[in-house]
Design goal:
The protein contains eleven helices and 13 strands. The chain is an alpha/beta fold.
Length: 291
């Protein structure tokens, strides 16, 4: 871990990252890609030491309330957060200044902040986004070794459901010849049905690989799935998009089951929902894309 002083905290679309790097160890992580110009070891977490102060200043300057998001590049609930407690400070500010909030995570550590999430959701809107990739627990531990498994994330989703906090699931990535199966998709969708998630984001069955994350992914394939790397190279070479050979069949299954279960499965509609600020006392709705 090391600290830096950041120049700013919110992106043009009101997203933020408190950290750079991650210790979850997911074998497919796109954030390892060289295009992000991370100049330090990926597991040596870069902490924005002045993030809380920058966020408060940014919220004070906002002319209109909006949704604030985090977790797109680095999960804010990595193990380090248990000691630093930055997210509680961030959530307290978002609550104090009356903004909405949405977070992407794979970690059950988010439950530590359930009280603040509930208070934000009572005042405006809070949406928890949870990534689910692998129904099989043993396989999940291989693909995402240092974070709670899908079964535990399912329990988190149900706790959010019971607390009235809306949830969105990211069904991504699906790794060709590993978890791109009907059993896997059906198992995850059944969990989403029971947890009553609002929507599921899915860009297709497959993953993306580029310089940086490709090398790490192939190294993990050699360790976990001998000879599978050669099959990837034979099928895909060094292309960026790695679609599953079963993409069409599995996407049809995905859309049919979502429709049957009453789960939103239109990506644009879900992103619109995530970006829409709702002030529950007045009924006001604003999109962060318009700010």
């Amino acid at each position: 871990m090391h600290y830096v002083e950041a120049k700013g905290i919110l992106s043009a679309r009101n997203g933020m990252n408190l950290f750079r790097g991650c210790t979850h160890g997911c074998i497919y992580c796109d954030s390892r890609s060289k295009c992000y110009h991370m100049e330090h070891a990926f597991e040596d977490i870069e902490v924005k030491g002045n993030a809380v102060g920058l966020l408060e200043a940014a919220l004070r300057r906002k002319r209109k309330k909006c949704m604030i998001g985090t977790g797109a590049m680095t999960d804010p609930y990595i193990p380090l957060e248990a000691d630093l407690g930055l997210m509680r400070k961030v959530l307290s500010l978002i609550l104090e200044y009356g903004f909405g909030f949405t977070v992407q995570t794979k970690s059950d550590r988010i439950l530590r902040d359930m009280d603040l999430l509930c208070r934000i959701n009572e005042q405006t809107k809070c949406v928890v986004q949870m990534t689910l990739t692998t129904y099989d627990e043993k396989l999940c531990k291989k693909l995402e070794p240092n974070v709670c498994t899908t079964k535990r994330r399912f329990e988190v989703l149900k706790e959010m459901r019971d607390a009235g906090i809306p949830t969105v699931v990211w069904l991504s990535p699906l790794l060709p010849f590993i978890n791109d199966t009907e059993e896997n998709i059906s198992g995850i969708l059944e969990m989403c049905r029971e947890a009553k998630v609002y929507g599921i984001i899915c860009f297709g069955m497959g993953l993306t690989l580029r310089d940086g994350n490709r090398e790490y992914f192939y190294k993990q394939l050699d360790s976990l799935f001998p000879r599978l790397k050669e099959k990837y190279i034979q099928c895909y070479g060094f292309q960026y998009e790695i679609p599953s050979p079963r993409n069409d069949y599995l996407m049809d299954l995905f859309h049919r089951k979502c429709a049957e279960y009453g789960i939103i499965h239109d990506n644009d509609r879900i992103f619109g929902y995530l970006s829409c600020f709702e002030e529950k006392n007045s009924g006001e709705q604003l999109s962060l894309w318009d700010l």
